[in-house]
Design brief:
By secondary structure, this protein is of the alpha/beta class. It has helices spanning 16-29, 40-44, 63-71, 84-97, 109-116, 146-155, 169-181, 189-192, 210-217, and strands spanning 53-57, 76-80, 102-105, 122-128, 156-166, 185-187, 223-229. A seven-stranded mixed sheet has the order 3-2-1-4-5-7-6, sandwiched between helices. The relative contact order is 0.15.
């Protein structure tokens, strides 16, 4: 049976700057897919005793990812994205701002989780503005489904967090429902911000992108969902 993909590989040309970034920075910061568990000390070249590791799934053109990495310089980020111009754009930003705490795997994140991530090895997971697949017949393609969340929960350390954000309310409701049903996760915001009905205030590290700022000006909502591994 053909596996349903949660993403479509968008067409797009690489700019000269993106190609140059891949050529010059790729050997240092691009992590090839492998069927073997990663050792973080080797991936980042530093002891992990003081460096939390966060997985990001789908970073688009990398604008927010670069800002987060600069906001949290002690944290190490493993970022998955299949869109080649996005990979080139993030590498270009890394070069321009001397960002060294990111590694990129240009591969399907689900396979990366299955084959490369050790159990209880992550301090956090970021999934920001995944494709909402608006049409009901396409909802099955949404990334946030119970099987994936179970896999992520297994790879989070106790006390680690899973942070999702979306600007599509029906998807926000589904995300909240799916995460609430995972027995290994607990809602951080339910007790501290009961007025938000299970959603969380925007954490300080997640920046407002240009797209998001425009949506807010037009009256569109954004929902953050933050759960903790128990």
């Amino acid at each position: 049976m053909r596996e349903i993909k949660s993403y479509v590989k968008r067409a797009g040309r690489m700019t000269p700057g993106q190609n140059k970034a891949v050529d010059t920075l790729g050997p240092q910061y691009l992590l090839p897919f492998q069927k073997g568990l990663l050792e973080w000390d080797k991936v980042f070249g530093e002891s992990q005793t003081v460096h939390p590791v966060v997985l990001e799934i789908g970073f688009g053109m990398g604008e927010a990812t670069a800002q987060i990495a600069r906001t949290l310089p002690v944290t190490h980020f493993l970022c998955c994205e299949v869109h080649e111009p996005g990979v080139g754009a993030l590498l270009k930003r890394m070069g321009e701002h001397d960002i060294r705490n990111i590694r990129i795997c240009a591969h399907d994140a689900v396979e990366v989780i299955d084959h490369m991530l050790p159990l209880q090895s992550l301090d956090g997971v970021h999934i920001f503005f995944p494709d909402p697949w608006h049409k009901t017949k396409h909802n099955k393609r949404r990334l946030i489904q119970a099987p994936l969340i179970a896999k992520l929960a297994q790879r989070l350390k106790v006390g680690g967090y899973l942070h999702c954000a979306t600007d599509w309310q029906p998807y926000a409701e589904q995300i909240l429902e799916v995460l609430s049903a995972e027995p290994a996760l607990a809602n951080r915001a339910a007790a501290t911000h009961p007025q938000l009905n299970g959603y969380a205030p925007k954490p300080h590290y997640r920046p407002l992108t240009k797209f998001e700022s425009r949506g807010i000006r037009l009256g569109h909502g954004v929902w953050d969902v933050v759960f903790e591994r128990i």
